[in-house]
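Here we describe the complex-level prediction in full. Unlike the single-chain runs in Section 2.1, the two entities below were treated as one system.
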Amino acid sequence: KNEVEQSPQNLTAQEGEFITINCSYSVGISALHWLQQHPGGGIVSLFMLSSGKKKHGRLIATINIQEKHSSLHITASHPRDSAVYICAVKDGETSGSRLTFGEGTQLTVNP
Amino acid sequence: DAGITQSPRHKVTETGTPVTLRCHQTENHRYMYWYRQDPGHGLRLIHYSYGVKDTDKGEVSDGYSVSRSKTEDFLLTLESATSSQTSVYFCAISESLARSYTFGSGTRLTVV
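The structure predicted for the assembly as a whole is:
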């Protein structure tokens, strides 16, 4: 079992729909990251959070430390949101701390 | 994007040849990382650096070496490339352990 599991693996939505991507992890963490990878391949950091909720524009990320679960929500989805969304967890705050990545969720938003 | 560039962007090389990938940053960030991305796997850490001449292994370090002789450059070397090292390689930087990461655009390496 992977330490970081994302669901769904693939998601197709119509423009305007509310989207949720889930991330579950099995290890203790110091922080959780959400990343976006566009078809061109570049990876952009969306959020880093260790508790509660963060919002940036139409994107909202939440985390429940007790349940070891995080969600990424996209409101009023748009075709330009089509990308792979990757969850990653960090296991500590030392130099040896590492990010463990999920395999990603491929999101396609159709006009 | 932030000042991080990878070179080359694409490379095709033959089995058994040495290959060096370069990651260059202009952000003066302390931490630098090399990852590889393969279908069916999440990004996996190859090596990382926590300062000039300070490096350590990641989870998939076999067959790779790194060097960091100055803050801005982190080099990844495949001493003798194998087909299993065909992958997309990403460099990332971080100002501190509590900060987010900035990723380079990736290098697509094909070993034939």
